[in-house]
Amino acid sequence: VKALIDAQQREHRFADVLEGLRSFLETEVIRLHDDAGERLRDPRLIYSPDGRFSPEVLGAMRQIRQASARAGYYTMLAPESLGGGGLGFEALYRSWETIYRRCGVEYWLGYQVVAHWARGPGHLVAAMSPELKDEIAGELLDGTSNLCFAMSEPDAGSDLWAMRTEARRSDGGWILNGTKQWITNGPYADRAVVFAVTDRPELEAHKGGITAFVVSADQQGFAVDSLIPMFGHSGADEAIISLRDCFVPDSNIVGEIGGGLTLAMSGVSEGRLYNSARAIGLARWALAKAVDYAESRVTFGKPLMSNQGISFPLAESAMEVHAARLAGIDCAQALDRGAANRTLLSMTKALSTETAVRAIDRAVQVHGAMGFTNDLGLSEAWQQVRRICVADGSSEMMRRQIAKDLRAWEAGLQ
Amino acid sequence: VLSRTALDDSGQLLQQSVVAAARTDDGGPAPTFSPTTWKRIADTGVFALGTEEGGGGPSDIAAAHEAMGREAVLGPLVATVLAIQLVGRDQQTGIAAGNELMGLRIGELVTWAPPARTYLELDHDRAWSCELDSVGPTIGTMAGEPWSRSTGKRLEELSGVDSAVAFADLATAAYLIGAGTRLLEMTVAHAIGRRQFGRSIGDFQAVAHPLARCEAQLTTARQLLYLTALELEQTPVLAEGSCTGATAAVHIAEDAALNTSFSAHQVHGALGFTEEASVGMYSTRIRQISLGSAGRIRTKLAASSGGNRTAVAPNSIPSNQDVR
């Protein structure tokens, strides 16, 4: 009974937060987009000729972060030790789902409203040294600056043990050398959290040996080598970053020396829940669009929806989205109880992202030729969810994890 | 029977000349439409195939479009095949030469307008030439085809629609198979070359088996394509409202190519989503070209299943007017 009451209270608490979040999206984000018109819609205006976001876009992103920080949404998931709301995983799931469901791909500034674990004040910042926290936590919490998470490398994607970036001891600090790839927000971040090998034998024994460092983007030896435009974009949010004899003081170590992997994996776990919520939010946005269209569009004298060839695939999407969403909320609640495991998270991530690909693909099909136009946004959503079947652990890596733990998982079911 | 689906020397030569004309300097597909490449492809004579003037038949159309699929050619291919079969001889010349680009009107949308200046509208088994009042600003699409919104009117109703649609389906199926096969080859090469956890990722069954399935699907789809082309050669004039094997061929080809796209992205990981790698260009072009025929396919195949036949062959299916 207590659990039930807790659950109801939690539900009620989230209802208020989510209601507030929805109204913030309407008054701040959607209004800003509507006022800006083509300037936030036309890719030729969103990106500068060099492929980076235009200064106006970067300014609008910061403006939304700062407004959201003042309203309290930006930091509601950040650890309490940093001055954040510490709302936990279920709030994370429900708020990101709400944002993507309302904003779809048209009102993409909405993605700045809540601090992302890797780019804003999250548990990585909580693990920083007191002096580093003093230096950067304030501007991260108020949305002025942000970070990027630099772990992947050209030859070390899923296989972290193949990491090559190395940190060598030096007077009062470390010298970093290496190349990082697929770094989201890499072209724009004020600082990067860089993962580097500090103990090669430990790494080779698959025990650890990786440490996280904060490197300022204006530090000598730190460079954004190139931008990586992804899937149909003329500009980029992803970068290749190089570190050449880049000095980092001891105070810029995040967590323990050799403890980088644990830090990284807890972040990636958060990322998997985030991407699950994002996928389901976008799937619901697309499904709603498809239903609207199928009900209003008349062909052969009747609404499209009256054809089972149209309505049944949408019913299929509804079933799958419901199942994946319940899996996501269940996983988030388990994480909040401290009872979640990697299996649950892996199931949720693969199920949600693959469900979203199917749901959005069906929405494209229902819209006919319209579905492929950039005007409608379904094409962009399809590409977005297709990408997150790979990002933060591919579907294959999720299945690998699930398969490894199958017996324990089955035995643990009540 | 299957040996009949192997291309003869002239089919292979045709493909080689199309590939040579379509290939860009860096060997990858062009990100945007290139009038020069289009003209070069036209100069090989492929757009005139299936006409009195241009010679050749369904097998040649299939071979040419398979080659274009391999190079992921971006252009109004389906509209061109339809038009060349539907319009009069005087208009055929400009289309075949690559000087006149065709667009299709789909509701308020028009494909390839601009650069297309001549338009068709297709509504199930009827087609019209069209005139546009005005052409709106360009709308981007998933595959990079320039479309726009416009108003316009139908001019003249065109005859011979069933045959033209069969040819267009055949061309679509061939393009999908060509694109899917090239994508699969790229993916296999990546799976062999990319090492994670100390070995090629292709050594993992979770990577290898889906690719084996794609190979099986594409091979079967290709055999069906060329068998269908042979059948169409033997029965060139179709009865009004009849269903052809081309409908089945495009259906099977879509499934094979879409599955291949999915696996190709999964195996390439993040690299597959970059603009630099061409995986995304193949997958989006495959997805977009798979749209048009879906409704027609399902209706026609559903109608054909009432006829106690498992194979769908030219002239074998009773009129399905009542089903529609």
Structural key phrases:
heterodimer; A: 414 residues; alpha+beta; four-stranded mixed β-sheet; four-stranded antiparallel β-sheet; 13 helices; 10 strands; globular; B: 324 residues; five-stranded mixed β-barrel; two-stranded antiparallel sheet; 10 helices; 7 strands; 50% helix
Biggest sheet features of chain B: 5 strands, mixed, barrel
Poorly predicted segments of chain A? none
DSSP summary, beta strand count of chain A: 10
| Adjacency order of strands in the biggest sheet of chain B | 1-2-5-4-3
Approximately how much beta-strand content do the residues of chain A carry? 5-15%
Give me the strand/helix succession of chain A. Answer: HHHHHHEEEEHEEEEHEEHHHHH
Query: Oligomeric state of the chains?
Result: heterodimer
Give the chain pair forming the largest contact, with residue counts.
Answer: A-B, 40 and 35 residues
Distance between the termini of chain A: 18 Å
User: Which structural class best describes the helix and strand composition of chain B?
Assistant: alpha+beta
The first-to-last residue Cα distance of chain B is 34 Å
The pLDDT mean of chain B sits at 85
SSE topology string of chain B? HHHHHEEEEEHEEHHHH
Mean pLDDT of chain A: 93
Provide a descriptive summary of the structure in words.
The complex is a heterodimer of chains A (414) and B (324). With 414 residues, chain A is α+β, with helices and mostly antiparallel strands. In chain A, 51% of the residues lie in helices and 14% in strands. Chain A is built from 13 helices and 10 strands. Chain A starts with a helix and ends with a helix. In chain A, 49% of the residues are buried. The mean pLDDT of chain A is 93. In chain B, α4 packs antiparallel against α6 (161-193). Chain B is built from 10 helices and 7 strands. Chain B is of the alpha+beta class and 324 residues long. In chain B, the strands form 2 sheets. Chain B has a 5-stranded mixed beta barrel with strand order 1-2-5-4-3. The A-B interface holds A 152, 155, 157-159, 161-162, 181-182, 228-233, 309, 361, 364-365, 368-375, 379, 382-383, 386-387, 389-391, 394-396, 399-400 and B 106-107, 109, 111, 139-144, 147, 195-197, 204, 206-207, 265-266, 269-270, 272-276, 280, 284, 287-288, 291-292, 294-295, 298.
